[in-house]
């Protein structure tokens, strides 16, 4: 169920500014989610055309971050919000930064897919990209949904999923190292896969960061650097 955690004011303009900043941030999130999805698709299909499109769209993500963050700065300067309104503006601003970083990582995956296509690719190891990519993609979607609905239990689940992604990432990297040892001719291609997996793992980290912003926004507790058990206590408490 969607919660409404920020105050409603006599000034309808203030309400409109808060709602607009949140809406634009979520629209940017939708673009970044598509960037991640398209980067994975380009990698899986060695689609250089799609990969180049992902890289070009990164500028749009960067521009949106600057525009919306400036909007948040103006709200802080003009309205001097307090309590839940202040948390909302700060959470939006911090989320913008995580989304921009996700866009950067998607662009890196796209560039590695181009390099892999130019090398002719390898016959295996795409399974790791697909599996972890699907997992991370779900985390990004759920983190944005949690923000849209002010849903701290869903945000907690995103944070919990990040631990599983880290485990999957470690397993995949060990498998790829073994493959390189068995077939040294594959080293160039496997390195592109490993760097792409690293970018996916980082996207998962940023999704967790957004989840932490949601918990801060809804529960009023800063859970950055907190263990999962501490986060669970804050959300369920």
From TrEMBL:
Pfam families: PhoU. InterPro entries: PhoU, PhoU-like_sf, PhoU_dom. It is found in: Cytoplasm. SUPFAM superfamilies: PhoU-like (SSF109755). Coiled coil: none annotated. Gene3D superfamilies: Phosphate transport system protein phou homolog 2, domain 2. Homodimer. Plays a role in the regulation of phosphate uptake. This is Phosphate-specific transport system accessory protein PhoU. The lineage of its organism: Bacteria, Pseudomonadati, Pseudomonadota, Gammaproteobacteria, Litorivivens.
